Amino acid sequence: EAGVAQSPRYKIIEKRQSVAFWCNPISGHATLYWYQQILGQGPKLLIQFQNNGVVDDSQLPKDRFSAERLKGVDSTLKIQPAKLEDSAVYLCASSSQGPNTEAFFGQGTRLTVV
Amino acid sequence: QKEVEQNSGPLSVPEGAIASLNCTYSDRGSQSFFWYRQYSGKSPELIMFIYSNGDKEDGRFTAQLNKASQYVSLLIRDSQPSDSATYLCAAHNTDKLIFGTGTRLQVFP
Questions:
Q1: End-to-end CA distance of chain A
Q2: What was the pLDDT predicted at A49?
Q3: Among candidates A56, A105, A106 on the partner chain, residue whose Cβ is nearest the Cβ of B96
């Protein structure tokens, strides 16, 4: 079974530039999560999708971050414009529906904003 | 108050000892709890999950849940240097999966 795919693995951009991350979840997984993990901290939930609907985006800085999951499969997360404090690893995870199901993580995208 | 709290550590234990990792959560609606291990520079990977009060054992790992106290723990028996990593506790309710900040475990030979 293929895992969660993310791209790119690494990205370096200047502040005020825009960037987009892509995630392809495990086939059949209805739930998709985007997390931000700053060095030394735990993953912070940015947005959670159930199929192509948003379940929670309370921690998403909506003035600069946006995310979509068209057709309930692939998802993209965009930052525009980027700030220095956005430097982090962006993790995508997916799971089957239900609370007792494991979330599988992709390899993450390491973003450096300079 | 953070939704899921963990001591950041580091927790240092000698090889062969029992490592005890603790986690508290604030949302009583949380239904299940997960322990993930994260090696430096890698993504989190699941160790085990628990949703019923009491203990759940899997090999050298035992998860404990006390919903009345809103407390979850992970015991690692016969700790090995390869267990050195950050251990993330996560709580799941119907809406979202929330992680703590993680506890860094160091197992020294």
A1: 37
A2: 94
A3: A56
DSSP A64-80: TEEEE-GGGS-EEEEES
DSSP letters of A97-110?
SSTTSPPEE---EE
Sign of the alpha-carbon dihedral angle for A78, A84, A9, B9: negative
Amino acid at A110: R
B interface mutation test: which of A105, A107, A109 has the most B CBs within 10 A? Answer: A105
For the cut 90, the answer to whether the pLDDT of residue B60 exceeds it is yes
Maximum distance among all Cα pairs of chain A, rounded to whole angstroms: 40
Distance CA(B18)–CA(B24), nearest Å, equals 20
Give B74 to chain A, closest Cα distance, Å: 17
What pLDDT is stored for residue A101 in this prediction?
84
Chain-chain contact of A48 with B96 (C-beta, under 8 angstroms): yes
B5 within 8 A of B33, measured Cβ to Cβ: no
Query: With a cut of 70, which residues of chain A have pLDDT below it?
Result: 1, 99
Beta bridge partners of B23: B72
> How far is residue A10's CA from residue B93's CA, in Å, rounded to a whole number?
32
Contacts of A106 in chain B (CB under 8 A): 43
Please state, in angstroms and as integers, the Cα–Cα distance from residue A77 to each residue in B11, B69, B91, following that order.
35, 37, 24
pLDDT at B96 (0 to 100): 85
Q: How far apart are CA A111 and CA A71, in angstroms?
A: 26
Tally of residues, chain B = 109
